[in-house]
Amino acid sequence: MTQTVRPGSGAMFDGIAPRYDLLNRLTSLGLDQSWRTKLARTVAAVVPRGGVILDLATGTGDVALALADAAPTARVLGVDPSARMLERAREKVLARGLEDRVRLARGDAHHLSLPDGVVDGVSIAFGLRNVPDRARGLREMRRVTRPGGRLCVLELGTPRRGLLGPLARFHIDAVVPRLGAWLSGAREYRYLASSIEAFPPPDEVVAMLAAAGWRDAGFTAMAFDAAHLYVGTA
What we know:
This protein is α/β, with parallel strands linked by helices. The protein has helices at 10-16, 20-27, 32-44, 62-70, 83-96, 134-144, 164-184, 188-198, 202-211, and strands spanning 52-56, 75-80, 102-106, 119-125, 145-156, 215-222, 227-233.
């Protein structure tokens, strides 16, 4: 019997792990790397010397490595439900010689096996849209973060106004799935495109952060609303 794979699950990402990085470069027109750098620097700004940063939906480890660079004395814990994505992340960590500072583990935002208030910062890039119960996940992130710690959420968006709106929607609806099918033969990229369209608008995301206990929640739009960086304080 064929087992059904839930869209957005770790099993789904196992299937697209080999080409995931390349797809990110192509579908974001190369902008995803600068977005990750901005996220990492925003988190690192409040992390004390020797602090701990939790990176959820760490995937192939790009954000975890960016955090290690932005906070050179901090320890980084990258968590992801996909075993194959973590395999690729471990290869990158070993290649950089950062295995003493960057740890990787399987898990998800719903159930973090960490005590209360033990991390100084939390990041999640392009992953909140795949968390089935976002409110629960945001509360769990808040639980493990010390008072004054920072949450940064990076998510893709779709420009809905101005001249770029129709072009951006065509890119998400037509280009992203076709690129995914061409490079990996994976229908899962249709889910990724639809998940971007279905993600709540920025004001609703900010309200979710506030409801989960994150203070001073707000966001910054990047690349004409193609991506948003959400920030909250524990």
